[in-house]
Amino acid sequence: MRTSRITRKTKETDITLALDLDGSGRADIDTGIGFFDHMLTALAVHGNIDLTVKCRGDLNVDGHHTVEDVGIAFGKALGEAFGDKKGIERFGCATVPMDEALARCALDISGRAYLCFDAPSLVGMIGGFDASLAEEFFAAVCSNAFINVHLDQLRGKNAHHVCEAIFKAFARSIRAAKKVTGDSVPSTKGSL
Question: What's the predicted TM-score (pTM) here?
């Protein structure tokens, strides 16, 4: 079972997150930020991951702590669920369109944390979601899952479309990388 359950409580957020890498795309998300819930649901559906997220954050301040802390919890859960990474495909890449927007994600379940994020249209508010927080989310995921992720906006002007294409490209890349295709750790070093 490639599952994980994370509980994280600080003065800023109270999070319970459950993840099943071998799920069917079920999502039960409640962060208090509607558009962020929509993105996490898209991540679950297109990543074919079962994901439950309950977060109570200091939204009276803004959404930053909620988004970043959910990223921390999701990253920890992802790393835990991958376990020793035995037999996984390891690499994933996807290019996803959404209307005029086009986003690409290439990732490596490498054991090394790195994010390269290039999405100049992610500015301003999308509903109650500060679009600039998408990068904060993925930075937290990478740092806590110890994965290498390159996310690029190739085209697009509408922040909603660009953000959604980015989350879906990440999800499709995880979907490819998590596949079990062998019985050994896919590394010349013998471990990841």
Answer: 0.97
